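As the work plan foresaw, our protein records have gained a C-alpha cell line. A representative record is set out beneath this paragraph:
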Amino acid sequence: MYLITAIINKECIKGVLEDLKSSEIEGITLSKVKGKGKFIDTMKDVDEHIRVDIVVSNVTYKELAKEAIRDNARNSEKGSGKMWVTPVMEVERIRTGETNEDALSHSVVEKTAPSVTESFTPEDTPAS
C-alpha cells in the first residue's frame, strides 16, 4: 500500500479529481496549504496550494494516481508542485475494523450490513 502526497496549484484540482474518479480511485483528502519551493526571508511571498493525500492498495493504482496528478498539474513554469510516495504499513477503517486492502475497498455496506431477513428465520423468533 502507498500514500501519494502532492502539493499542487489550486487551479489544477478539478482535473486531478476527474482523472482520479475515472481511474476508480476514491478516498482522497484535500487540504489548503501555504508554502514556497525555495527558502524566503519573509512570509509575504508564500503561495496558497492544495495538498492531496491518497492511499492506494497496489502499484497499479499508485501509478494511475501519479499520472492523474502529473497530467493535470504539470506546466512549463516553476511552481507546478511536488509529489512523493510513502509506503503504508497498515490501514484500518475505524467504523468496521477492516484492515489494509479491505479497508480501502468501497463495497463495505454489502459485507457488513446484513438485512434482517438474512439474519433470522421464523424458527429463531420468540413469537413462533
Observations:
- Residues 107-121 have pLDDT under 50 and may be disordered.
- The first helix runs from residue 13 to 22.
- The CA atoms of residues 30 and 52 lie 5 Å apart.
